[in-house]
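Hello Y.,

Per our agreement to keep a running log of every chain we model this quarter, I'm adding this entry. I've kept the format consistent with earlier entries: sequence first, then predicted structure.
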Amino acid sequence: MSTKITVIGAGSVGSAITNDIMVQGIASEVVLIDINKQKAMGEALDIYQGAPFCSPAIIRSGEYEDAEGSQIVIITSGLPRKPGQSRLELAQANVNILKEITPQIVKYAPDAIYILVANPVDILTYVFTKISGIPENRILGSGTVLDTSRLQSELAKRFHISPKNVHAHVYGEHGDSSFVPWSLAAIANNKIDNYKDNVGDSSCIRWDGDHEAVEEFVKRSGAQVIKNKGATFYAVAISVCHICKCILNGSGTALTVSTMMHGEYGVEDVCLSTLALVGSDGVHTKIISPLTPEETAKMQFSAQKLREIIDGLEI
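Predicted structure for the entry above:
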């Protein structure tokens, strides 16, 4: 079965996603759309010329009408975050860009599953949900999937174990008010703070329950990359491709994607990240985890910070 994905935005993130889609053999056709048509054409040509070394795929630039028949549409268009700038400071400018894009793309791809990637991703996911007319289950933000990957990779280093044996996630905003529900975190089927005591040789494990230090590392990782090299795109591209694979394989994978909240954890009418089952119909269902009262309060605080931004926007 042929698979078609449209990527809107030919900047560093959109181009990296398109390249990874081809390298990983996720789709048989990718359409890259950008207001800068010359840039989109150049990126598509550059990526496609590596096709002989990958699974067969067509990579091309196009117009909105070329998105027709896409199973997935990925929206990366927006101004990038500058050094020292928060994701939320980008809000109105990128909301305006999204408002311009939305009616043009949904006209030609009304049945696609939409993945919002541009920042602030929770705000843009909320706006897209409100203005697009696309059913909520087919709208998701990349949310804290990348934050969770950063968390799991850091914990894997500290515990000297494969990241696949790390079960810990980042909830809330993709930003400063995110948090880790440590009560749910586990290493190889052991509560995270008990694992070191339950393994025979713990000499290589660097863990003293320093939850705050790990959370701070996760929150600051994106800003650190931007400070050092000007932009983040490799890790986010891999994380978005993982979301695409979870959608297309249809098996139902638990991911911390950003979705509209309807009273879960006492949160209403904002988009933020919790665990959800993602598959062929998009977001199949949310997974309501048993958070502690303190963690629930952190979730509500994150929602409040997002609500304050939303209330100040022109949508």
